[in-house]
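Morning. Coffee machine broken again, so started the prediction first thing and wrote up yesterday's gels while waiting. Chain of 409 residues, entered below exactly as on the submission form.
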Amino acid sequence: MALSKINPLLERKLAELRTLGTSKREERVVVGLTPPAHGFGPRYLLAGQGQKEFLRMNANSYLGLSLHPAVIEAEERACRAFGTGPGAVRFISGTFAPHLELEKKLAAFHGREAALTMSAAYATVMGVLPQLITDNTLVISDALNHNCIINGVRLARPKAKAIYPHLDIKELEAILLDFKGKVDRVLVVTDGIFSMRGDHAPLAELVAVCAAYEDEYPEGIITVVDDSHGIGALGATGRGTEEKTGARADILIATLGKALGVNGGYVAADRTVISYLRESAPFYIYSNPITPGEAAAAAKALDILDSDQGLKLLAKLRELTNLFARGLVELGYEIIEGDHPIVPVLIRDTGQTARLVSFLFEQLILATGINYPVVPKGEEEVRFQISAAHTEQDINLALQKMALFKKIG
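Came back before lunch.
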């Protein structure tokens, strides 16, 4: 009976979200897919849309590995060997051989001593940050950091928090100067790739500034990067923002669920940090891990990425991204330029953003509209995400539809 009192309050909250334009409303449900054919990539079938086949340009599967036969086979084989789920948390017989093999490969791929997997990248951030933040720690964060970082810092309750304007390393340095003698430890945390914009953190400059002030703090300055959108999508060999910038954070967090095409998150660092997190991070200790099948599939996806085949997929991804970005500019659209396969088209108007997304849906193309307050007013956008599973014909089709909207919209 208590819900009868709270439900009207929840309904008002839902109405507020709808008014703001931030409601997720009903989720589009994928009920099937058709394989690549006739020079086009895979198409997706949605509930309520009959046999209409949609081009998916709003997915994080940058390399298309979720549909790779070898990745699927690896998961099926592990499921037959170990079952569909772990059945327990890691320290209570929930650790299977594929978990350890994946963590070993992740550590080697990133040139770290050790790695640790968790159920999701969001859970990894939430599990890692509070364990490194004390009541005498300053946390410094980029203004456009992901929601998981924001909530991870809230959960940690540091002594002080500071936010620098997006990518503003001079302001980061000013904060470090200001807090000398006021805290023992500093933790600087940033996204590698910022998912709303596709731009990347200036990691070399960030690391250099932190190193310059390291001795001013008794417990040092720890740099943490969540490069979930970078791994497998940026850098010559897909090692993300670190490879792109030629710099390395103390602690790297990323996902298995985007370019690697599976599920789960991970953290890579030195052996002491990882050993400490195994003993202290509640999102690791008290939550089931990814399944053995997922671990095996992720390991196979990592093998593919770290091979000649992976280099070819990355090259194709860059070519398709450049083709799409150039085409949009030629059509007169404003984009945020960059090397990442996130291609934001700045519409700068909420209504027009919604109209473009609806138009594309009618044209059987899935894209994501991003409006205030997710982005500031005047920076409304439609975000496209390119995949190596796309083809040149897919890109040209999308550009044709964008040209049509330019003409009639």
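Residues 31-60+308-408 form a domain with the Aspartate Aminotransferase, domain 1 fold (CATH 3.90.1150.10). Going to sketch it on the whiteboard this afternoon.
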